[in-house]
Amino acid sequence: MPRKTILSGMRPTGRLHLGNYVGVLANWVKLQSEYECFFEVADWHVLTTSYEDTSGILRDGIEVVMDWLAAGIDPKVSVIFVQSDVKEHAELHLLLSMLVSVARLERNPTVKEQVRDLGMGDNVMYGHLGYPVLQAADIMLYKAHAVPVGEDQLPHLEITREIARRFNTLYEEVFPIPEPLLTRFARLPGLDGKRMSKSVGNVILLSDEPEAIGKKVMTAVTDPEKIRMGDPGHPDICNVFAYHGRFNADAVEDVEAGCKSGELGCVKCKRMCAAAISGYLAPIRERRKELEADETAIVDMLAKGAERARQRARETMQQVRQAMHFAG
Ligand code: TRP
Ligand code: SF4
Fold it and tell me: Is 225 within 8 Å of 231 (Cβ atoms)?
């Protein structure tokens, strides 16, 4: 039986952090052995919120791809490409934009949140409202059966499913209805306990050196009731403990017991945590350095990826045009 297809993407926002890794990227790496995978750098999506200065988008895309490869995405197995290299995304986006109402897009909680957080008010751009439509085109162009994403993307995926159903009913049964593939236990808090995000400045990057990791972990917010060694702590409300759980599985029980009894102090606990994270990331960091030394290889790889993506995209668009009576 042919393998099912997945497509997923990230906006190129520069170097990736541990939250991106735990929430999405680690899952992608695993899924490569089960599915035919398309991984996309969603560069056009960046324009929905940052259209004024576009000079860094290409560079940020390269950084993201280096992190993907360093973490174990294998271009021999998966198709890695940049959205703007495959113009079919634009054509499908246009056609799909006719199949979804403005009211439906305005109800999308992710866009609503962005509008609030970025203080956009009445200045929401037409293209920004269409963010989920562009994402639907990404997914449907490869006839993906499943989409591995973080929880925050579920509202977008629901719109894709509605659009795909609508297309199939109106014209022809061209598209599978894609399922979300969520990662369990996927949320890693930022060092301050808030959502890990570059704009908040509470992130550890996949490419951070051990010293940087050590410094950052020292700033982490822990149990506020544990002030000095000897005070019993509550690991379940401590951010550092969340990191132990994910990156220091062998020692996690000892840390928990030491924290609760008071024997383990936070400074030592943080040192252990930083060492565990550094150790975990060491192979990724090494591999990334090798990739950085030969950037033209990345550019070549992306050109090949775009060619493979285009091939699939052309086939789908042929079917779409036929179904809509645009093709002879
Ligand atoms: N919206 C996704 C994000 O912000 C990125 C994305 C673009 C995407 N196209 C996609 C994710 C298609 C999954 C499938 O992370
Ligand atoms: Fe957190 Fe460790 Fe301090 Fe306990 S000892 S509160 S787990 S940093």
Answer: yes
**Residue 120: count of CB within 10 angstroms of its CB:** 14
- Starting from the CA of residue 259, give the closest ligand: 2
Is the Cβ atom of 242 under 6 angstroms away from ligand 2? no
Tokens of 226: 């544990």
Q: What is the pTM of this model?
A: 0.92
188-237 pLDDT, tens digit per residue, is 888 888 888 887 788 899 999 999 999 999 999 888 888 887 888 899 88
Q: How many CB atoms lie within 10 A of CB 46?
A: 20
> What mean pLDDT, rounded, does the chain reach?
92
- CB of 241 within 6 A of ligand 2: the answer is yes
Q: Which residues line ligand 1 (CB under 6 A)?
A: 7-11, 42, 45, 135, 138-139, 147, 149, 153, 156
Which protein residue has the closest C-alpha to ligand 1 atom 5? 10
Q: Is the CB of 217 under 6 A from ligand 2?
A: no
* H/E element, 304: helix 295-323
Domains (ranges, CATH) in the chain?
A: 5-188+295-323 (3.40.50.620), 210-289 (1.10.240.10)
**Is the minimum distance from the CB of 235 to ligand 2 under 6 angstroms?**
yes
Question: For residue 93, is it left (φ>0), alpha (ψ between -120 and 50) or beta?
Answer: alpha
Phi, psi angles (nearest 5°) of residue 36: -80, 120
